[in-house]
Amino acid sequence: MHDVKLIREQIEPLRLAMRRRGKLEALAPQLDRLEALDVERRRLIGEVEQRKAARNTASQEVARRKKAKEPADELIVQTRLLGQEIAGLETELRQAEDELERHVLEIPNVVAADVPEGGEEDGVVLAAWGEPRREANLAPHWEIGERLGLLDLPRGVKISGSGFIAYRAKGARLVRALMSWFLDVHTAEHAYEEVWVPFLVTRQTMTGTGQLPKFEDDMYAVTADALFLIPTAEVPLTNLFRDEILDGAQLPIGLTAYTPCFRREAGAAGKDTRGLLRVHQFDKVELVRFCAPADGPAELERLTRHAEVLLERLGLAYRRKLLAAGDTGFASAKTYDLEVWAPGVGQWLEVSSCSLFTDFQARRANIRFREAPKDKPQFVHTLNGSALAFPRTIAALLETHQRADGSVSIPEPLRPYLGMDRLD
Predict the structure, then answer these.
(1) Confidence (pTM)
(2) Catalytic site includes residue 353
């Protein structure tokens, strides 16, 4: 969420920021309305204050006259009328402030200055690791998984519909192995605190990280209880500190969690629907960091590296891509996508998005810190990244490490967790 002062004092820079995102035309009416609402809000505040001052003066005069046994009936009526006017103006003020907040909640974050212009095709590949496997006739992961009994795609669909996957036998063990290994690396080597979080959250929690109100149609809702299934562990992890003031000496704080994730992805029907490429329920280990504002860019590099380490140890060729302004997520100021090469489908698959949100989420969730005990609180900067999302990681792993005899080699770090060196 944006500071209201930005609407008042820097509305033109905000319009330019939305133009960089390619959203100015769509958001122009809202920005105009925001500007008008802020003017109206300040006018109403001024009128309330004027009438309160007049009422106070009248009340003091009533008290003086009563003490002097002078008539005060006219002033008493005036005081009551002023009270009624104040109540009416305060109602208008609350309505204006509520509408202002609703509109502000739907304005995306300002992207960082070093984010390139453009849309989905204009992202910049900054680095790459590994040699993509490109032999002909490599099997796609769904064929490998079904042949080896790792995936039961038809029964997943039978149980829940398209976009839901059943892992079986060694496939289920592979999911559990990835979860344990990812968490062990992040806690033991990268100093994250592991958290086990609820998978259902409130509307306020979803609003705090930016999923609501903008993306409500993409969420799974439990309407009877006014709860939502989480789309990512970012949501509960970030909101752990909602409405809190953190000790600046403890920053940066890193949290990690494994969760299932649930996304309807309305509008994505028919795209990459085979196998594990696009699903409605998936497993993921998430990283969330809280830092002082000056440390945000360095923390983004650190967090992204924590995800890259896993891909390298799994022997998966990948590339780091800086997303262009028009492709950067609603709440993000800067995002790196990590794309892994899946040779069986011949595609680069996103397995992690690592984002810096500046103070955008912290303002929505009211997460602040003090540099010193008596300092004025200021908003933290938040970051998050997948490390990693399981389905496409598994797809790339099966396709990259498939062997001529039909088996799949297990990367060295996973062998102690699986108790085997190959899937066959």
Answers:
(1) 0.91
(2) yes
Q: How many helices (H) and strands (E) does the chain have?
A: 13, 16
Q: Is the peptide bond before 154 cis (omega within 30 degrees of 0)?
A: no
**Annotated catalytic, 368?**
no
> How far is residue 60 from each of residues 53, 54, 82, 145, 264, measured CA to CA in Å?
11, 10, 14, 83, 62
**Region at 130 (left for phi over 0; alpha for psi -120 to 50; beta for the rest):** left
392 tagged catalytic: yes
Residues 238 and 224: their CA atoms lie apart, in Å, by: 25
SS3 222: strand
Locus of tokens 């080597």 = 189
Give the neighbor-by-neighbor strand order of the sheet with 227-229.
200-202, 227-229, 221-222
DSSP string, 325-340: GGGS-TT-SEEEEEEE
Taking only the tens place, the pLDDT of each residue in 148-207 is 999 999 999 999 999 999 999 999 999 999 999 999 999 999 999 999 999 999 999 999
Residue 225 is given by DSSP the state G
Give the number of other CB atoms < 10 A from CB of residue 407: 15
User: DSSP characters for 173-185?
Assistant: HHHHHHHHHHHHH
147 has catalytic annotation: no
Annotated catalytic residue: which of 47, 216, 350, 371?
350
Nearest to 18 by CA among 96, 133, 131, 107: 107
In the annotation, is 301 catalytic? no
